């Protein structure tokens, strides 16, 4: 009897040993939740990431993409990321103020001259160092993903800063963006991306700021009579993951994922540059919103009204970072 028990015990141990390679080969699932549609730079980037992972790591890693706020808003997704309920997200850098104050740099009005200057900064040593700013809070930045320059819209023409006075503008959850609209005597309202269309359509808010890609894909132009080509700010994403999850991945898999992220990031830049041209044209062709181009002196008035905001935030975002962006502006 004793012998039988020993035999059973030995068999159980052996089965356990046999089972362990199967257990360790269990597929890793990466859930990627984001808020834009699939036909946007970020949406395409997420799908390309999934495709490359399928091709190179199929059977070992599976990526599940949830676009259009299907799973979480940006505010909720960062909490879910920290709980490891999702493993990838790419919110706007404007939405991380709970996790780092430094990424507010990207919201300073009229800081970046164009997307090329933005890329120059994010590729620089300072930009790359800044990508790690939320790590202390458990959020690891894997890369910057471009969307583009923001435009401003309302139901009357916004030509001079005075035209924005008293209007309610939706903003992302950023104190810099709040200060930016207060600087032109408007009323900024923090609101989730998924709620903006209805808020514009029902008059809960009067105006908004976003890129051509988002103005087109979320149909904001259908409920805004006037859109001004202001290029007053940028929309840039941080592709982020749960630091512990990423660092605990098997090294070979992590290295391949890092490589895929690099390749996808390059493609996202191209998707974004293409979208800025194509989506602006689609919006213009729709005839549903009047598109206004500012003269140099009109633009200068917006710069003079909004730029004093920098002084409020320069210690928080780093004067050295601002100087590094200005060097990029000079080169682009
Ligand atoms: C996004 O592009 O991810 C949304 C940005 C916003 O909330 O306006």
From TrEMBL:
Signal peptide limits: 1-25
Protein keywords: Signal, Transport
Gene Ontology annotations of biological process type: C4-dicarboxylate transport; transmembrane transport
Keyword Transport: yes
Segments crossing the lipid bilayer: none
UniProt GO cellular component terms: outer membrane-bounded periplasmic space
Pfam families, per database record: DctP
Family: Belongs to the bacterial solute-binding protein 7 family.
Protein name listed in UniProt: C4-dicarboxylate ABC transporter
Organism: Candidatus Thioglobus autotrophicus
């Amino acid at each position: 009897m004793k012998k039988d028990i020993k035999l059973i015990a030995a068999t159980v141990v052996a089965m356990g040993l046999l089972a362990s390679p199967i257990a360790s080969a269990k597929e890793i699932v990466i859930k990627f939740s984001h808020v834009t549609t699939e036909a946007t730079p970020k949406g395409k980037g997420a799908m390309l990431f999934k495709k490359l992972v399928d091709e190179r790591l199929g059977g070992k890693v599976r990526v599940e993409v949830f676009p259009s706020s299907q799973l979480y808003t940006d505010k909720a997704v960062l909490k879910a990321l920290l709980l490891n309920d999702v493993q990838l997200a790419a919110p706007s850098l404007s939405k991380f103020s709970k996790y780092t104050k430094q990424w507010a740099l990207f919201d300073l009005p009229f800081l970046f001259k164009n997307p090329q200057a933005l890329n120059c900064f994010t590729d620089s040593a300072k930009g790359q160092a800044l990508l790690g700013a939320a790590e202390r809070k458990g959020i690891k930045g894997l890369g910057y993903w471009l969307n583009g320059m923001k435009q401003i819209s309302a139901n009357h023409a916004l030509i001079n800063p005075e035209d924005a006075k008293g209007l309610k503008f939706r903003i992302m959850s950023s104190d810099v963006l709040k200060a930016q609209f207060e600087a032109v005597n408007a009323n900024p309202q923090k609101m989730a991306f998924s709620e903006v269309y209805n808020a514009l359509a029902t008059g809960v808010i009067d105006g908004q700021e976003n890129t051509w890609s988002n103005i087109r894909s979320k149909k904001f132009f259908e409920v805004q009579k006037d859109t001004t080509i202001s290029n007053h700010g940028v929309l840039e994403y941080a592709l982020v993951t749960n630091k512990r999850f990423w660092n605990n991945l098997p090294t070979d898999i992590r290295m391949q994922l890092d490589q895929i992220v690099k390749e996808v990031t390059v493609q996202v830049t191209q998707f974004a540059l293409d979208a800025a041209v194509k989506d602006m044209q689609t919006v213009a062709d729709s005839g549903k919103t009047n598109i206004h181009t500012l003269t140099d002196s009109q633009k200068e008035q917006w710069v003079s009204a909004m730029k004093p905001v920098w002084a409020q935030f320069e210690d928080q975002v780093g004067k050295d970072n601002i100087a590094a962006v200005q060097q990029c502006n000079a080169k682009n």
